[in-house]
Automatic annotation (TrEMBL):
A single BP term in Gene Ontology: blood coagulation
Source organism (scientific name): Sphaeramia orbicularis
Keywords, alphabetical: Signal
InterPro entries tied to this protein: PZI_serpin_dom, Serpin_CS, Serpin_dom, Serpin_fam, Serpin_sf, Serpin_sf_1, Serpin_sf_2
Gene Ontology terms for molecular function: serine-type endopeptidase inhibitor activity
Protein name: Protein Z-dependent protease inhibitor-like
Domain Serpin, chain residue ranges per copy: 40-389
Length: 392
């Protein structure tokens, strides 16, 4: 009798656990789509301002702005939720899900992304222990008061924090700080790219890259012959190539057809479009030529966020009372720096697959976009534009 009762109890516990995990999976999937939506809108807002290379660690930025959202209340919080595509979601649930996201990413090895997220209010604004703990445990970040009345020392504090989080690849996150700064949101990220279908360094050659019809540069062009996943978007006239990577992430390279303006493509890159590309991928034999590139980009995002609808946080009406019980500061500055290095580094020795007849060749020799996403959740991690691989 007792064994039977134990079996029933275990069955009930298993069922309850499965339901909880199923609910968590649905919530993660929902937040994943919302995060990707924010990421693509943020990218479009930044890309419209420059013809140069672009690189954003959008997951890191979304993590940081979400941590700030948890500090806000009232219409200030609602505005942040709207911009983050989190309208209607419980803020505490969002924090819990970001903790689950970080766990899911770390299960893949976690070495792909080193990121830092920090909320730095002035010393005149007190933070509650509960908010400091929430930023640390849920978002993997830091909430720390800084004395901005001595700008050089304040910058040194923030730069040393960034180096501790991301490594020596980021030497300087901030340079000049206003002594009147009330609140600074800092995000930094370094991406370690290791392809599971590695390019062979011995086959890398100097090739032409057509920046535009008047400007051609010579770049190290990597090469590999293998079976790849490929899609074609007839509406946007772009090819989409998947490059699998270690740690459970993958890169999509989006190459516009010759004569197609890359800015026209960028204007139509949405969460729905990215997820559609992933679904449409099909395996095919292919020779791939991809330029080696290193991007190191820094941004002050106050103006960009305001064009996206985040305005109240920068005004005297800002309400960050969830940070410490009083109305709190207004947001002064949002800084972001991200680095990605794409080369022949890999998880395994590079050996090309030999086919009985030469497969088609895809040569990525003109401006292209790329997206890095977490495969288990389809969450967009970072997004960029390579207009000129010779530039960082």
């Amino acid at each position: 009798m007792i064994p039977a009762m134990v079996a029933v109890v275990l069955l009930l516990l298993s069922s309850a656990s499965s339901q909880m995990m199923g609910g968590l999976g649905q919530d993660l999937s929902d937040l994943s789509y919302r995060t990707t939506d924010f990421s693509t809108r943020l990218y479009r807002a930044v890309a419209r301002r420059t013809d140069d290379n672009v690189f954003l660690s959008t997951f890191t930025l979304c993590t940081g702005v979400s941590a700030l959202m948890n500090a806000a209340t009232g219409s200030t919080q609602e505005q942040l939720q709207q911009t983050l595509s989190q309208a209607g979601m419980d803020p505490q649930r969002v924090a819990d899900l970001f903790q689950s996201f970080r766990t899911s990413i770390s299960q893949g090895g976690g070495e792909f992304l080193k990121q830092g997220v920090a909320v730095f209010p002035s010393q005149s604004f007190e933070m509650s222990a509960s908010y400091v703990d929430l930023v640390q445990t849920k978002y993997g970040g830091k909430a720390q008061n800084v004395d901005y009345s001595t700008p050089l020392e304040a910058a040194d504090t923030i730069n040393r924090w960034a180096q501790d989080q991301v490594g020596e690849s980021i030497q300087t996150l901030v340079t000049q700080l206003d002594p009147q700064t009330q609140l600074l949101l800092a995000t930094a990220a370094s991406h370690r790219v290791r392809f599971t279908l590695p390019f062979n360094a011995s086959q890398t050659r100097e090739e032409r890259f057509y920046v535009d019809k008047y400007h051609v540069v010579m770049v190290p062009m990597m090469f590999r012959s293998d079976k790849y996943f490929l899609a074609y978007d007839r509406q946007l006239q772009v090819g989409v190539l998947k490059l699998p990577m270690a740690e459970g992430v993958a890169m999509l390279v989006i190459l516009p057809d010759e004569g197609v303006d890359i800015t026209d493509v960028e204007d139509k890159v949405t969460a729905e479009k990215v997820q559609g590309w992933i679904r449409q991928l099909k395996k095919t034999r292919l020779e791939v030529q991809l330029p080696r590139f290193l991007l190191e980009r820094s941004y002050s995002l106050q103006d960009v966020l305001q064009t996206m609808g985040v305005t109240q946080v920068f005004q005297d009406e800002a309400d960050f009372s969830n940070m410490g019980g009083t109305k709190g500061p207004k947001l002064t500055q949002v800084v972001h720096k991200s680095i990605i290095n794409v080369d022949e580094t890999s998880t395994t020795p590079a050996t090309d697959v030999v086919f009985s007849s030469p497969p088609p060749r895809l040569t990525i020799n003109r401006p292209f976009l790329f997206v890095v996403y977490h495969e288990a959740t389809s969450t967009l991690m970072s997004i960029g534009r390579v207009a000129d691989p010779k530039k960082t």
